[in-house]
Amino acid sequence: MLDNVTFANPEFFWLLLLLPLAVLWYFYKRKEQVASLKMPTIKGFSNDNFLPKLKPALFVLRLLALAAIITAMARPQTEDISTRTKTTKGIDIVMAIDVSSSMLARDLKPNRLAALKEVAGEFIKERPNDRIGLVAYAGEAYTKTPITSDKSIVLSALREITYGQLNDGTAIGMGLATSVNRLKESKAVSKIIILLTDGVNNSGFIEPQTAADLAIEYGIKTYTIGIGTNGNALSPIAYNADGSYRYGMRQVEIDEPLLKDIAEVTGGKYFRATDNEKLEAIYEEINKLEKTDVEEFKYFRYEERFRSWVLLAGGLLLLEWVMRNTLFRSFI
C-alpha cells in the first residue's frame, strides 16, 4: 500500500506518539477498575470462557483505527513524474567530406575515407538535438543531404558516400561554398561547417578564400581538418587492367596554411588527423566545443491515496463496535 507513496502533510505523524500514551493510560485505568473479592476457595467456579481474555482486542482495534486516521490526515499520494526536454540553442551543422581518390590512401585504417565515415557516424549519433547535412566534394561538389534532424537519413547518406561519384580532384572552395549555401538561410543560433580534406585546392571555379568570405558574411563558423600522415602514405597511383587501383608510396600534401586561414577568419579551428585515434579525438573535441543548450522540464502529477486509509479506519471501528455489542456485550 505504501509503494512509491509520498505524504503531503507528514507532520501529522507526530500524533502517532499519542498511541504509546494511550496504551499506558488503558492499562492504568484497567488496573483501577479491577475489583477484588476474597473467598476461602474457588472450587465450583468454571474458567472455560476465554472471551474475557480477548477483551483488550477491542482497544487494539481502536488504536489501529486511530493510526489509520492519522495516516489519512498525512495525505498519502502517489507521484508520477514526466520529463520533457526543449532545445533552446539548436545548431545546424554541415559536414563537407573530401571524396577524391587520395582519400583511399591507407595511412588510416582501412583507408582515410572509411575511417572518416566511421568517426563521423559516431559524431552524428551524439548530436541528437541538432540538424546535420552532408556535402561531398572532389573535383566538384554536391549536397548529399540537406540539413535535417532525421539522423537516420544522414547516417544512411553517409554510408552511401564513396569514391567515384564525382570527377577526381580537390575543390576545397567548391566544397566550402556548397556548404555555405546549405546554411545561409538557416535560422539556427549557431551554424558550423566541418570541412575535411587530404590535399590542396586544385579544382573548381570558386576560390577557397572567396568561399571563406561567404561563410563570414553569413556568420558560419568553419572547423577544418587535414587528414593524412606526415611524410609518405600508401596511396592510389594508377589503375590496373581490371579497373582496380594500383597502390604506391606518395608524398602527403595538405595545404595547412589555407585550412588554418579558413578556420581562423571564420572563428573556427584547424586540426590535423594523422591516424585513426587523432581523427576520433578531433571529432570528440568539436563535439565538446559546440554544445547545444537543452532545458529539461519535469511535470509532477499526484494522486491522493488517503481514501483507502479512511475506509480501513472505518472498517476497524465498525468491527470494534460489532464485537463490543455481540461477543463482549456481557463483559463490558
Automatic annotation (TrEMBL):
Cross-referenced Gene3D superfamilies: von Willebrand factor, type A domain (3.40.50.410)
Entry-linked SMART domains: VWA
Top-level taxon in the UniProt lineage: Bacteria
TM annotation in the entry: 12-28, 306-323
Keyword annotations from UniProtKB, A to Z: Cell membrane, Membrane, Transmembrane, Transmembrane helix
Protein's UniProt keywords contain Kinase: no
VWFA domain boundaries: 92-286
Cited Pfam families: BatA (PF07584), VWA (PF00092)
InterPro entries: Aerotolerance_reg_N, UPF0353/GerABKA_families, vWA_BatA_type, VWF_A, vWFA_dom_sf
Name the UniProt record assigns to this protein: VWA domain-containing protein
Organismal lineage: Bacteria, Pseudomonadati, Bacteroidota, Flavobacteriia, Flavobacteriales
